[in-house]
């Protein structure tokens, strides 16, 4: 590896020149992004002799609504179970995300990644024709959007209206975040490998 640029000629990959802070798991170990991130969170809490607390994970600047770390963990688990049980999503499916930023987005992403779903996000300001093209390219089986952005899916030249669509600001979706108590249910996960595709970005 070049000590000045971090470039490895053999793998054709750039590596960070900063000091190593975390020990990454071996690439062959099955591990989803969600498992890895949440393991760091739990490890940090354990080293501080505490549980995953109610300290704030995110704040909606417009409304002041807060999402605590404990709620993030609980709601991610509940949503992952709901997506498998009620939407029959499975590893390798593509989920298209058409939504502005909200507190539900990280929960949705972590839930989808925990069950091996490939995420394909897009800019809500994209045109209907661009959105149609992206969905047709990535072959999304489900679309997550908001009531404010859903009109972009109505394109006379496409069949997007027939795709499963979930409004993430609907009462039905919000109920999925708390439907399952993580002490009573377990997500039956497909094995998610570190080499699996996680995101399709345009």
From TrEMBL:
Keyword vocabulary terms for this entry: Ligase
Any one GO MF annotation of this record: CoA-ligase activity
Domain AMP-dependent synthetase/ligase, chain residue ranges per copy: 51-202
Pfam families: AMP-binding (PF00501)
Highest rank taxon of the organism: Eukaryota
Identification of the protein by name: AMP-dependent synthetase/ligase domain-containing protein
């Amino acid at each position: 590896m070049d000590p000045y640029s971090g470039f490895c000629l053999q793998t054709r990959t750039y590596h960070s020149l900063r000091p190593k802070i975390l020990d990454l798991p071996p690439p062959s170990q099955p591990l989803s992004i969600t498992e890895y991130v949440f393991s760091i969170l739990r490890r940090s809490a354990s080293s501080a002799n505490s549980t995953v607390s109610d300290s704030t994970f995110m704040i909606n600047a417009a409304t002041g609504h807060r999402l605590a770390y404990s709620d993030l963990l609980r709601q991610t688990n509940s949503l992952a179970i709901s997506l498998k049980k009620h939407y029959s999503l499975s590893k390798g499916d593509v989920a298209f995300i058409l939504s502005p930023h909200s507190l539900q987005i990280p929960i949705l992403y972590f839930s989808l990644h925990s069950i091996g779903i490939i995420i394909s996000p897009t800019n809500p300001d994209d045109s209907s024709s661009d959105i149609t093209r992206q969905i047709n390219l990535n072959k999304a089986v489900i679309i997550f959007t908001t009531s404010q952005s859903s009109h972009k899916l109505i394109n006379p030249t496409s069949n997007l209206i027939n795709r499963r669509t979930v409004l993430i600001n609907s009462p039905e979706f919000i109920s999925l975040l708390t439907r399952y108590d993580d002490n009573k249910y377990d997500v039956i996960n497909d094995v998610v490998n570190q080499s699996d595709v996680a995101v399709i970005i345009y």
